[in-house]
Amino acid sequence: MTKNEKFIRQTQAAEQRHLDEVITKIGRAQTKARQSIDQAKNDTQSLNRQFNEEVHLSYGSDTTNLETALSIRQQQQMLQERENSWQQSARQLNTLKRLAKTPYFARLDFHEHGEPRRETIYIGLGSFSDEHDHFLIYDWRAPISSIYYDGKLGQVSYQTPDGEQTVNVLLKRQFLIKGGAIESMFDTTETIGDQMLLEVLGEKSSTQMKSIVTTIQQEQNKIIRNVAADLLFVQGAAGSGKTSAILQRVAFLLYRYRGKLTASQVIMFSPNQLFNDYIENVLPELGEQNMVQMTYAQFIGRRLPKMTITDPAANFEVAQTTTAKAISRVKTDLRFFKAVGIYARHLEKQDMRFKDLKFRGKPYFSKEKMAEIYYSFNENYHLANRMDATQERLIQLLNNKVEPEIRKNWVAKAVENLSDEQLQSLYAKADQEFASSDAEFKYLARKIVTKELQTVNRGIRRFRFINSRAQYLHFLQQVPYLIDLASFGVTKEDWNQEVAQVQADFRDKRLRLDDVSPYLYLFDLITGKQVDRNIKFVFIDEIQDYTPFQAAYLQASFPKARFTMLGDLNQAIFTHATSSSLLSQVQKLFDPEKTEVVQLTRSYRSTKPITEYTRALLRNGQKIDTFDRAGDLPNIAIRADEAALHELLLRTLQENDQRQLTTAIIAKTKQESQDLAQFLKTAGYHATLIRSENQRLAAGTIIVPAYLAKGLEFDAVVMWNASATRYHDEDERQLVYTIASRAMHRLTILAQDELSPLLSAVPATLYTVE
Ligand SMILES: Nc1ncnc2c1ncn2[C@@H]1O[C@H](COP(=O)(O)OP(=O)(O)OP(=O)(O)O)[C@@H](O)[C@H]1O
């Protein structure tokens, strides 16, 4: 044994002793936490008992009532405190349980300026201190832990809530600990050693995403710990860890603002439900609750339950015409967003569209009356105030109408026809007594009228008197005066036809996706409702699939929130044309001083050959650096007929299975995926077809249409039928890129007849052909 090896052995043995000690202390703390939970439980029970007895006793006399009330309040407070300490102990126990498995993953030695001694700290998933309040483990999110991710050895600064601090870092050590034993450890002079990263990345994929807390990279750490920006825009290559980084960021924010921020004030917009499933374990693993998760379609769909939202461009089932694409560009542009705002303000003066509020089949408040009220307020009343004032006035008028309504014939008839059962339900108590039958009649009539008028009341409160469809159509008609349509390549005629089409859609209770956000936004501006001031942080993943309009609408909907937007402009598969200008458009919505753009260029997901291949698919793409991990070159096979392709597919799947690689077969459309599933079933090969985003990801081979594969990753990917007939338009390049970049270890591309021109420009050295 060399001297060096001996030294390493001794160091590891010393670290193991330290680890054993910490584990023993964690064990003791667990026992203690369990005891205090039991204690709190017992206390609560006995308090409850005592409290019930006392309250029971005191109910006898009036004089003790106040006392009783006070005592109830006190008791409740005590119960609450017990409950809090119980919850706290339960939370602590949870952390301890997690720490008991892997107490920490890193050690840092540093010297703080002006301090006599060198300090050593250990970093883990949560913090832990012994009875003497001596910190044995620091939470990875604690300010000091930042230097583990951020710097090399020597002078390193980090942010604390009180400002910047600098320390001299002397040692950085990483551990892989399993079952209480140190499996391996490395000292590193770099940020996070590649050796550690290689071990982690070499692992197989699973149906659930994992946390990256032990190997967060420096540039990812910047995203995770940013607290200054109102808009944090992350452009990151496929597999650069954008999604991983934001989940860590949520955990960080919940820690940093503990007590002020709850998981319910953080909302994340993700590409689809499947993806939500995929990431759902990450935060709980880190000991935090999941934030609110939604897709944009859910966000807008819940507001329009009675309408069918259609998206002609979705899922690549139909091709769009050039005019349709141009019109779509108009409706998704920021200029269109501004136009809605300008139009809405114009409504303060004229052109509001109202609907009659009906009662018993007849107009109760006519639309003319409503317009008269709406425009009766002076010019200081802006949209939301004006609407509030109108509502208030309408409610007042409604209340004034109760008395006259009571005298109407229909009421007398209704009272006469009341069944016994109905009568009892209207009385305040069973067999209520009245001074005279006239009094009884008045009582019942008032009840009936108030009840019936409830519908009108509800109509007023829910803005049923606004003719939102007519309003939106009127706005569309005004668009040529608000926007230079020619600059989008749209003629006046095209536009008029478009307006007629929207009108026809409305008749069928349909609305196209491009119209939904402007439609809702206009309504929100008119009513001043719907914005959610409670949400503090909004995350938008895969921002490249949002239109500038949608991004702007989200910003308007969460006015108090700070935004983190992540995306890869190389992967814009739904919005292609606008994505390149997306960043510049979105930036206009935020204060430039408070905007930060971060680029993640290194791709961690795939092996070097796969990253190099996928990178070559792009033209004028964003920068991508590979991570040095070995693997096979992607393999391309072209066959003349489908049967031969099927055969190849089966063989590839069997090979992957043998190598224990989980495969995803990615096809362009749902139809193709279904056909493949049918074929594999007949061939006796088991695979799960992912038909919709509401399904769960299954273990084993899956077949998935491209648009559902967003954000996911698999050991092996088979790109099905990458032929010239299937992928030809230049704007499908990003789609092809997205498909190929889902592969971690192996990529196989199968094509019939002729390979898609989008793939054929890749240098031949980057793949093999068979
Ligand atoms: N610092 C890291 N340490 C370990 N693994 C990492 C790190 N960063 C990223 N990874 C891994 O790289 C893979 C890709 O990460 P992620 O899905 O977050 O990337 P992404 O940028 O969102 O990709 P895409 O845009 O293609 O969906 C994941 O398996 C993730 O665990």
Show the helix and strand layout.
Blueprint: H1 3-58, H2 65-101, E1 106-112, E2 118-124, E3 128-129, E4 135-139, H3 146-150, E5 154-160, E6 163-178, E7 181-187, H4 194-201, H5 218-225, E8 231-236, H6 242-256, E9 266-269, H7 273-279, H8 282-285, E10 292-294, H9 296-301, E11 308-310, H10 322-332, H11 334-346, E12 357-359, E13 362-365, H12 367-374, H13 383-400, H14 402-406, H15 409-416, H16 420-426, H17 437-461, H18 468-482, H19 492-507, E14 510-512, H20 513-527, E15 537-540, H21 548-557, E16 562-567, H22 576-587, E17 595-600, H23 608-616, E18 635-639, H24 642-658, E19 663-667, H25 670-682, E20 688-689, E21 702-705, E22 714-719, H26 733-740, E23 743-752, H27 757-760, E24 768-769
Parallel strand pairs: 2-4, 8-16, 8-17, 9-10, 9-15, 11-14, 15-16, 18-23, 18-24, 19-21, 19-22, 20-21, 22-23
Antiparallel strand pairs: 1-2, 1-6, 3-4, 5-6, 6-7, 12-13
Helix pairs in contact: 1-2, 5-6, 11-18, 11-20, 13-17, 15-17, 18-19
Explain the overall architecture.
This protein is of the alpha/beta class and 770 residues long. It is built from 27 helices and 24 strands. The strands form five sheets. Strands 1, 2, 3, 4, 5, 6 and 7 form a seven-stranded mixed sheet that branches. Strands 20-21-19-22-23-18-24 form a seven-stranded parallel sheet. Strands 10-9-15-16-8-17 form a six-stranded parallel sheet. Helix 21 (548-557) links the parallel strand 15 and strand 16 (562-567). It is globular. The chain starts with a helix and ends with a strand. Residues 55-66 have low confidence and may be disordered. Adenosine-5'-triphosphate (ATP) binds at residues 197, 200-201, 210, 212, 215-217, 220, 236, 238-244, 568, 604-605, 711, 713, 741.
